[in-house]
Write a structure and sequence with these properties.
The chain has 380 residues and is of the alpha/beta class. The protein is built from nine helices and twelve strands. The strands form three sheets. It has a five-stranded parallel beta sheet with strand order 2-1-3-4-5, with helices on both faces. The chain is elongated.
């Protein structure tokens, strides 16, 4: 069914002329005054209005302005015998007219203007439809994200208690003395239980930050001391784990103190170092550099590892991202080369940076390593 066009004019001959010009292309409704036009708008769907400027009860610009406020999707055309600048300005500013024609108008000219106006109306309806679909999709994604967060938290809680019992039982077994042949199995069980504990801790954090901000407890902190400590810990852990990696740590002079939550920043840097160690083959290098500007402190953690595929680089900070490999291929080794975690470490680090008012960015090239840069603002 064709869209309805409402012609509004107090002269019957003018209304008939509009109806004849448009009869073959659309359905034409008519009204002889502004008030009559308003009644039609209230009872029937109208796509476009053709309104004469001079009418006894109200000017065409007044009717169009009222229509624009109440029925903004209706396309508005003005017919006027007065090529006055003020009239046109009122039509544009108050009535938001799509087009205007001066009397006497040509039928072909009117048909062309109405045809283009109806195309505009259809485009507006399509835009509304697409926007509605996009809004629904966004709301659905938000609900799914909330559900995933609740699922992570619930799973971590449910698995936490039996894991705690299991780890205590393993500790009791190791303290009570077991057969020498069983000792390697016990050590393997303890390593796997520790790996599971780290995974549950990440799940708890990831599930929590989707529902509420991280519980930051900021205070003045010696960032140089914090970085030196966490870097030394990873360097030693790499040696203890049988890895052959060169740690090159150069911490530039920094302010005496920076306002941060030291526990969360340490965790974020640890996640970056863990990622660098696990994706750098033996005989590679891990580099940590700092830089200070009047506004920020930058901490760059780079490696000579396998790098990240450019197709996945924009997803690297998303939970369970494919950028760090298939999560189904994880191993229980904490710092073994190629070990995959749950894919939450970088997402947590980005959240820590964001909630400190900072940023976490990455540059990488497949086969040539990666560099993660944590930027934190200096605060009084």
């Amino acid at each position: 069914m064709s869209r309805a066009v409402l012609a509004v004019d107090d002269e019957p001959a003018s209304l008939r002329a509009v109806q004849r010009a448009l009869a073959d292309s659309c359905r034409v409704l008519s009204a002889s005054s502004g008030s009559a036009a308003w009644e039609v708008l209230a009872t029937q769907p109208v796509a476009l209005m053709v309104v004469d400027q001079r009418m006894p009860d109200m000017l065409g610009t007044q009717l169009l302005a009222r229509t624009a406020a109440t029925y903004p999707d209706v396309v508005r055309l003005l017919l006027t015998g007065y090529a006055e600048v003020d009239t046109l300005i009122d039509a544009i500013n108050a009535g938001h007219v799509y087009h205007y024609l001066t009397k006497p108008w040509e039928p072909a000219e009117l048909r062309l203007a109405v045809g283009r106006g109806l195309e505009r109306y259809e485009a507006t309806l399509e835009r509304h439809r697409l926007l509605g679909e996009l809004t629904n999709a966004c709301q659905r994604l938000e609900r799914e994200a909330e559900q995933k967060g609740r699922l992570l938290t619930l799973a971590a809680h449910e698995l936490g208690t039996p894991l705690h019992v299991l780890m205590n039982s393993l500790d009791l077994l190791s303290a009570g003395g077991i057969a020498p042949a069983a000792w390697p199995w016990l050590q393997t069980a303890r390593r796997n239980a520790a790996w599971l504990g780290r995974g549950l801790a990440q799940m708890m954090t990831a599930g929590g930050w989707r529902q509420r901000p991280l519980p930051l407890r900021g205070k003045d902190t010696d960032l140089r001391c914090l970085l030196a400590s966490v870097c030394a810990r990873f360097a030693q852990a790499s040696v203890d784990g049988g890895r052959r990696l060169r740690f090159d740590v150069r911490i530039a002079a920094a302010p005496a103190a920076i306002w941060i939550d030291p526990l969360w920043i340490e965790r974020a840097v640890a996640n970056l170092l863990s990622n660098a160690v696990r994706f750098t083959p033996d005989d590679g290098a891990i580099r940590v550099r700092t830089a200070v500007t009047p506004e920020h402190v930058e901490v760059a953690v780079s490696d000579s590892g396998i790098g990240i595929d450019a197709a996945h680089l924009d997803q690297v900070f998303e939970p369970f991202s494919a950028a760090t490999g298939d999560v189904l291929l994880h191993t229980s080794g904490e710092l073994a080369f190629g070990a995959r975690g749950l894919g939450l470490g970088l997402a947590i680090a980005r959240s820590v940076a964001d909630q400190h008012g900072g940023t976490l960015t990455v540059t990488s090239q497949l086969g040539a390593g990666s560099c993660f840069t944590l930027r934190l603002p200096l605060r009084a």
